[in-house]
Specification:
Layout: H1 4-14, H2 19-39, E1 42-48, H3 49-53, E2 62-69, H4 81-95, E3 103-104, E4 109-112, E5 118-126, E6 132-136, E7 141-145, H5 147-160, H6 165-177, H7 186-193, H8 205-219, H9 240-263, H10 268-279
Parallel strand pairs: 2-5
Antiparallel strand pairs: 1-2, 3-4, 4-5, 5-6, 6-7
Helix pairs in contact: 6-7, 8-9, 9-10
Length: 288
């Protein structure tokens, strides 16, 4: 049986994407990008989302491709958000007539590949020097965002923590993935983490994780602005009751991580059990 420290370190390592997964993303991105550039008047196509920020979890389910229309060749004008999503969808229906149509989502279109990884295409227009406008389906609204600023905010926070934040973000996101009753969206959870450490966190991995959960238990009750400082708050759709439920989940995690840390040498079996409950079946106390 591994020690608790060994099991936690292995959990961190196994959250890192493999070379094969990264190569697969590159291939799929290139296929989608080639179709988009050939058929649409675009000014930019780039990867965004958690994959681009280095905070994606394994197994990797999807990657975001941000697609910016060239406003000189195709002005937004009075176009409805649904029309833009529909135009991108028609491109792939014409390009790949034998496949299922891309699935319409709130701000994007999803293309499923046989590899098990989906590509979410997010169409956008540039909004001056300060960001982009993306469509919100069925509402007629355009939402301000800037995934490049999200990447910069994440990189700056991880740099302040001397590279110790992103592994903790992945652990917290894995904890959230294992919670059937969590009201927290992945990006909201991640955005709250950016303000956790102004300097490198000290202590063991479990002590650093406990410190992050403690920060989150307080931060979740406050408004979480978009890290790009654009558009609506990240938690705009959360109710007060959902925030309180999330705080309770964080407080339970604080207690369990603290107890696991205390028991790691005196009662490692119990510590392993606590951590397995926190992280789900991806946490293992011994090798295969």
């Amino acid at each position: 049986m591994w020690t608790v420290e060994q099991a936690m370190q292995r959990l961190v390592e196994e959250q890192e994407l493999t070379r094969a997964e990264r190569d697969n993303v590159t291939r799929q991105h290139e296929v989608v990008r080639e179709v988009l550039i050939r058929r649409l008047p675009l000014s930019e196509v780039f990867l965004s989302g958690s994959y681009s920020r280095g905070t994606a979890l394994r197994p990797l389910h999807d990657v975001d491709v941000f697609v910016v229309f060239d406003a000189d060749r195709q002005p937004r004008g009075q176009r409805e958000p649904d029309a833009l999503l529909g135009e991108v969808r028609q491109v792939f229906e014409a390009e790949w007539p034998g496949r299922d149509s891309p699935a319409l989502q709130r701000h994007s279109l999803r293309i499923d590949f046989s590899s098990g990884i989906s590509v979410d295409i997010v169409p956008a227009y540039t909004r001056g020097p300060g960001g982009y406008l993306i469509p919100q389906r069925d509402t007629g609204a355009w939402i301000q965002t800037n995934p490049k600023e999200h990447q910069a905010a994440c990189a700056q926070a991880d740099q302040a923590a001397r590279g110790r934040l992103n592994p903790l973000i992945k652990l917290v996101k894995q904890w959230n993935r294992a919670r059937d009753n969590s009201p927290l969206r992945s990006f909201h959870l991640e955005a709250m983490c950016y303000s956790a450490f102004a300097s490198p966190p000290e202590g063991t991995l479990l002590e650093r994780l406990e410190a992050l959960f403690r920060h989150l238990s307080e931060r979740v009750m406050q408004t979480c602005r978009d890290p790009a400082k654009l558009g609506v708050a990240v938690d705009a759709r959360m109710t007060q009751g959902q925030k309180e439920a999330a705080r309770n989940l964080f407080q339970n995690a604080i207690r369990e991580v603290r107890l696991a840390s205390q028991e790691r040498t005196s009662n490692p079996e119990q510590a392993h059990q606590r951590l397995s409950t926190l992280f789900g079946p991806v946490y293992r106390k011994r090798g295969p």
